[in-house]
TrEMBL record:
The keyword Transmembrane applies. This is Outer membrane usher protein. The keyword Transport applies. Residues 731-786 form the PapC-like C-terminal domain. Belongs to the fimbrial export usher family. It comes from Candidatus Pantoea formicae. Residues 7-152 form the PapC N-terminal domain. Keywords: Cell outer membrane, Membrane, Signal, Transmembrane, Transmembrane beta strand, Transport. It comes from the Bacteria. It is a multi-pass membrane protein. It is found in: Cell outer membrane.
Amino acid sequence: MASTEVQFNTDVLDIKDRSNIDLSQFSRKGFILPGSYTLAIHINASTLPERAIHFYPSEQDKNETLSCISPEIIPLIGLKEAALSRLKWWHNGECLDFQSLNGVTARTDLGKSTLFISIPQAYLEYSSPTWDPPARWEEGISGLLFDYNVNAQNVSQKVQGAKSGINVSGNGTTGVNFDAWRFRADWQARHDRRDTGAQSPTRWDWSRFYGYRALRKIGAKLTAGEDYLNSNLFDSFRYTGLNLMSDDNMLPPNLRGYAPEISGVAKNNAKVVISQQGRIIKEVQIPAGPYRIQDLDSAVSGNLDVRVEEQDGEVHQFQVNTATIPYLTRPGQFRYKTTVGKPSDFAHNVEGPLFAAGEFAWGISNGWSLYSGGIGGGDYHALSLGIGRDLLALGALSTDITTSAAKFAHQETQRGNAWRISYAKRFDQLGSQVTFAGYRFSDSGFRSMGEYVNTFKGDTTSGRNKEMYTLSLNQQFESLNLTTYLNYNHQTYWNQDANHRYDFSLSRSVDLAKFKNVNLSLTAYRNKFNQMSDSGMYISLSLPWGQSGTASYNGSYAKGNTLNNVSYYRRVSDTDSYQINGGIASTGTDLGGYYTHKSTYAQFNTSASYRAGQYQALGLSLQGGATLTPQGGALHSASLAGGTRMLVDTEDVAGVPFSGIGHSVKTNQFGKAIIADVSSYYRNSVRINVDKLDDNMEALKSVAQGTLTEGAIGYRRFSVISGEKSMAIVRLADGSPPPFGASVFNKKNQETGIINDGGSVYLSGIQPGESMTLRWNDEDQCRINLPQQIPANMSANLSLSCT
């Protein structure tokens, strides 16, 4: 960086004492005094966290200072191997010589506390606007966390024979982060009390104990403890052991896998409980009408049990298969999963033989992928072989065959095969997307490892799969502003009745007279599960009404019960929204409402339903968490239990607003806040919402970036000046004014003002009773003590002494 000397003509300055001037910090362009500075490192479009950067005199020009990028920082830049081999060093090998790579430049902006480095893209590993190479991923800081989701419902039934009472349930995750390890314990609890006096005992279950960490060098995740087999080839079951698998979440976003989604229609305000083999994965309250839950973890595999508990007492159950899209792998890439352990149950008992499972997928070429796997333990083993093909304009297709052999007690060995075919395609020109389409057939002799394990638990009657059809389809007709969605699942068994489920929706946006963006929708569903059938239809007409409001007409039909309903929804602010509704059903008059509040500390939902002569119900839910680290902690809202989060620190400045996930959060009285539900392995930006920043606050830096590994607690410190602002007159001990251009710093070493003519200064960050330092000639000269009481009328200049 250049250090050209700049000569100031002080005769042009309109000041009384031209000899009492300190312009040393402005005299050399770009000059930075030797020393250590805390700076963020901005590389092209991404920013690394703040760290200490040393500045040394140049070995070629002692009047020039250069930033020192140490060998410890180099891996964070993400240079390719070829570029790394060309690096040269100076200052006894401590600092990178930027001239060793053509086109690399660096400049420092102390005002922004940032070192800007520009590097040609040819030298860097692959990155995108939302994804960083593994070298920049952060493990975060150590800490404790406790995330919770509590739901309560009070139902009063007026129909003879119906049960009334209070139900309270909850689930969540508690955990410890230490270095790269994440230790977690999932919990769930339930309490029921009936108006008859019957009371079930309160149950608190620790449903799973486990730990995991990222192995970034091999793009894999290591998990130890209790888990559910995550496989693209074999059915899932619970086990205790070790798992090592290449993690698709570490790939760039456009190469990641498919996450399951749950959809349906709730006739009333309801609670949806999603579980797998007894462990609750998600529990959420929803208002009446269609719903789609799309934020499940893509690592979830196998069949999910869905239970919809309506506030009128009705319960609907169905299963969703989390089948993945065709098993394709990038050319030259090798993906794998390995597991070893013993089957276990919900009570943490280990049952059954030691087993091992493994699978791999190899991208042979641009078009072909090969995959295979095996699983075995005790008297059971299975092998699978498959191939995938990218059909380019025709989509993607994969097919595989699995053969199994299982010997049960006092029976001959059962042998069989299962065939599967999967297809996916996005038709851009037609505006449609087949998210997943699949077919699977298992002959009568085929057994899964899960079925074999069940015999050790005494379960010999569970359904044996025969045929399964799955389909998920989206279609848009842009010329008609029409969107369609179809989700279909059909499962037959060799030893029990078939299950099936579908839901279909149509929606269209039109303009009617003065009303713009009027939405018409139709949803139909049918469900048959465990010999229980449920079907219905839902139509809706909604239109904008007032500021941030929507008025709707809804009609539904289910089990012979017809309901005509009108409702009004309004988003009051970024944190509050409500919905009220009333209607006439074939069995009575309906009234209901739903209210949501998202605060810094938790998310609160409440709902109420009433049907004349039948029932009345009230539902409450609270969702949030607490995170504590050596750098501080806070209560916070959270929807992904045990997930990745960011601790932001404004150095004891309370009430600083940050842009969070879906709503804003504010720092607590200790200057700390948690931004939860941060995406793992994405480049996340956290920012101060300067539009909502109080007038007596000033953010020296408002944005920070970072890419965190799964489950990490990130940490970012923001420099915020807080306090009153006022003009002041500063005098030295002898009554003279300080030099023109001298700087004033607070106790956090933040520059709060620059001395003007006659000792006048516009000061920011004035706090009663605190002190500030006056600095010129690159040295602290004296201290300014602020008054214990700041005048209410700040229009008058403060008179301050520097001693």
